[in-house]
Design a protein that fits this description.
By secondary structure, the chain is α/β, with parallel strands linked by helices. The protein is about 50% helix and about 10% strand. α3 runs antiparallel to α4 and α10 packs parallel to α11.
């Protein structure tokens, strides 16, 4: 029996709506207080709105961009009332995200132009990195793809054991050498096994420590170097996992990791348990790196492919 059954689009949308419920409630509560007693969008309302966006973890730079766009709309459309503010926000945030030069992917899958597609997963401890790898593996497998995992976070026994458990759960092989072994040797063997088994995708878990940037950079560079002995262009993707519930701390982590290595995609987890969902908007805008996946619940299917417009629609859906 399949562990994950593909969700219909309607069910995915319902899962996304539910996952963003806390963020929506918090946002609309703040917005309602900001415009109470006001009839039109004026400077005072814009100042209040700026505070609402910043305290909703959208981020200062992105907030200022949004406010500027709304100011321009208000100047152009003279009679905008506060009752139209949520629709105005929805449109301007959707416009901002659509301009960030990153394409939404349609569904779970990897390019068929090379095999295996090697994904190196990075992120600090506790962000849901290993769980994200497990859920990704399940969904890739459900699409008929052959997956091999590499347990290269060898500094924590729990990380290796957790990945092995996911391997058993979703029935994919896990290459592991145990704790305190050389991470690059694990990566080497994982890619080797992926090639031998004609796998579609190899996912390599790496150490979740922001010890020093130099050490992190050296470690990730070494892993890349040994992978490239088999596949010169690998890793094809460096996926950074961030915990959305940490708000602006997730932004700081993204800045550190993007300095330390060539991050090419993002996964933002734990959005269902927080009111900080606005951080997805800020991260998507600031880094211009595709947010590929978001976590909106505990189930395997609650790791969803991120679609900008669907996210904005769910975030601004009025709560009855």
């Amino acid at each position: 029996m399949a562990l994950f059954k593909g969700l219909f689009s309607k069910e995915k949308k319902e899962s996304l709506d539910k996952g963003l419920e806390k963020s929506k409630q918090s946002f609309f509560s703040k917005l309602s207080k900001a415009v109470v007693g006001k009839s039109k969008v004026d400077d005072e309302v814009l100042d209040e709105l700026e505070e609402v966006l910043i305290t909703s973890d959208v981020g200062v730079d992105t907030t200022l961009k949004i406010i500027k766009r709304i100011e321009e709309r208000v100047a152009r459309d003279k009679y905008l009332g506060v009752q139209e503010l949520d629709q105005l926000l929805r449109e301007e945030i959707a416009g901002l995200l659509s301009e960030n030069n990153t394409e939404d992917i349609e569904e779970f899958g990897v390019p068929s132009t090379h095999k295996p597609h090697v994904v190196m997963v990075v992120g600090v401890n506790g962000v849901g990195k290993t769980t994200t790898i497990g859920k990704l593996s399940a969904q890739f497998k459900e699409k008929g793809l052959k997956v091999v995992l590499g347990a290269a976070d060898t500094f924590r026994a729990a990380a290796v054991d957790q990945l092995k458990l996911w391997g058993e759960k979703v029935d994919v092989p896990v290459v592991a050498h145990g704790m305190n072994t050389d991470p690059s040797a694990v990566a080497y063997d994982a890619v080797k096994q992926g090639l031998e088994q004609k796998a579609d995708v190899v996912i390599i878990d790496t150490a979740g420590r922001l010890h020093t940037k130099i050490n992190l950079m050296n470690e990730l560079t070494k892993i890349k170097r040994v992978i490239q002995k088999f596949i010169p262009e690998a890793p094809h993707e460096v996926l950074l996992v961030l915990d959305g519930s940490t708000g602006q701390n997730a932004v700081l982590q993204a800045r550190e990791f993007t300095k330390a290595t060539d991050v090419s995609s993002l996964a933002i987890t734990k959005l269902d348990g927080t009111a900080k969902g606005g951080v997805v908007i800020g991260i998507s805008d600031e880094f211009k790196i595709p947010v590929k996946y978001i976590g909106v619940g505990e189930q395997i299917g609650d790791l969803q492919v991120f679609h900008k417009m669907e996210f904005v629609d769910s975030f601004f859906k009025k709560i009855l």
